[in-house]
Automatic annotation (TrEMBL):
Molecular functions (GO terms): calcium ion binding; phosphorelay sensor kinase activity
Domain Histidine kinase intervals: 130-324
Reported cofactor(s): a divalent metal cation
Name of this chain's protein: histidine kinase
Source lineage: Bacteria, Bacillati, Actinomycetota, Actinomycetes, Micromonosporales
Pfam families named in the record: HAMP, HATPase_c, HisKA
Catalytic activity reported: ATP + protein L-histidine = ADP + protein N-phospho-L-histidine
Annotated ranges, domain HAMP: 70-122
Enzyme Commission number: 2.7.13.3
Length: 408
């Protein structure tokens, strides 16, 4: 087969100067048919044939060939017109692909390419619009604060400077996410796998998320139910993954709501569920939320639309999966901080027990958070549902992350 392909690659292309494929087909079939007729005629000892009948047969053959070849060449002409339109920025042109031959496959591939180019062009436009918006908002706020200070309208009080700092941090977060996105596209971010204690690791991420939420003014509470699990992964990238998920959950939770982190081991992988009590994500948008700059109906809570895209990228690097699942398939979480003999699985000095997959701390186990750790709930914590607070949790957003215990 290789030898045959090599021989065919060296065959001449005498019909390349012909500008029409139908003309090429006509010439090729005419020559092939002529050779066949000559051999047939020779086999009949050169029987005399009327020249007029021969001319009529050739003319009818050419007309038939033109009619039959019309459907084969129309998609090629349409592709030429569509390609020229794409060069001008019009990605709406499509080619009618009804045949099942190579031309039909080419037309189908062309339509797919046109759809991909249209999506890429839309994402490019959204990128410019969203980045411009995300940059303009904090810059406008900073400019207003600084102008007020310079004009003497307000003084550089701690509260004013904290507002300026939050806007600066927002700018820094956007720049960091854009840099991560560029590394994602370039594929220049190698993983540095190392053994991790999942419980201690998530405790650390949750403590940082609690501080971030408090600094941003989000009145939320964090609960953790993670058993003793060890896995191998890139600590920095996994920290980025769960920090994005927790920040996203905190921003979309109602005041006094709860963000729950649960983990379960399943044979050679671990499943981590991050749940909030917000409005949830419509089923139609659950696939798109992991695309860049997709914020959907939850965009009113802020964010760049890059966090979940980066989370999806990190999970893929580790050979895992991430998905927004329906609340109906989520097991009932452990009870919250209602009074009773069985407290919730909450970070803090209190022991944890409940119907979750594994206790956070129990007899003989190292406590999840010691006396020096920031407690999840304390005297200053936001009131919870069941404690007299008017909290009406929504269906919530339930995100499942599945990671292998060891890299493949």
């Amino acid at each position: 087969m290789t030898l045959l392909r090599w021989v065919l690659s060296w065959l001449p292309r005498p019909l390349d100067p012909v500008r029409s494929i139908k003309a090429k087909l006509s010439v090729a079939l005419g020559i092939a048919g002529g050779v066949g007729l000559l051999i047939f005629w020779w086999s009949l000892d050169w029987v005399r044939v009327e020249l007029s009948w021969f001319a009529i047969a050739v003319a009818l053959g050419l007309v038939t060939l033109q009619v039959m070849a019309h459907g084969a060449t129309v998609p090629l002409r349409e592709m030429t017109v569509a390609a020229k339109a794409m060069a001008r920025g019009d990605y709406t042109r499509r080619v009618r692909a009804t045949s099942r031959d190579e031309v039909g496959e080419l037309a189908a591939a062309f339509n797919q390419m046109a759809a991909d180019l249209a999506a890429a062009d839309r994402q490019r436009r959204e990128l410019i619009a969203n980045v411009s918006h995300e940059l303009r908002t904090p810059i406008t706020a900073l400019r207003g604060l600084l102008e007020n200070i310079v004009d003497g309208v307000s003084s550089a009080e701690p509260e004013t400077m904290r507002t300026a700092l939050s806007q600066t941090e927002r700018l820094g977060r956007l720049v960091t996410e854009l840099l991560d996105l560029s590394r994602l596209d370039a594929g220049v971010v190698p993983l540095t796998p190392a053994p991790l204690d999942l419980r201690a690791f998530l405790d650390e991420v949750v403590r940082e998320a609690r501080v971030t939420a408090d600094g941003a003014g989000h009145d939320v509470r964090f609960e953790v139910a993670v058993p003793e699990i060890r896995l191998t992964g890139d600590r920095e990238r996994l920290h980025q993954l769960f920090a994005n998920l927790l920040d996203n959950a905190a921003r979309h939770s109602p005041p006094g709501g709860t963000v729950t982190v649960r983990a379960e081991r399943h044979e050679d992988h671990v499943r981590i569920a991050v749940t909030d009590e917000g409005d949830g994500i419509p089923a139609a948008d659950r696939e798109r939320v992991f695309e860049r700059f997709t914020r959907g109906e939850r965009a009113r809570h802020g964010g760049t639309g890059l966090g979940l895209a980066i989370a999806h990228w990190v999970v893929q690097l580790h050979g895992g999966t991430i998905a927004v699942v329906d609340p109906a398939v989520i097991p009932t979480p452990a009870p919250t901080a209602d009074p009773g003999p069985t407290p919730a699985a909450v970070l803090g000095p209190a022991p944890t027990a409940g119907p979750g997959p594994a206790p956070t701390a129990g007899p003989g186990a190292a406590p999840t958070a010691g006396p020096g750790a920031a407690p999840t709930a304390g005297p200053g914590a936001a009131p919870r549902a069941g404690d007299g607070a008017a909290v009406r949790p929504g269906p919530g957003c339930h995100i499942h992350v599945t990671l292998p215990l060891a890299p493949a």
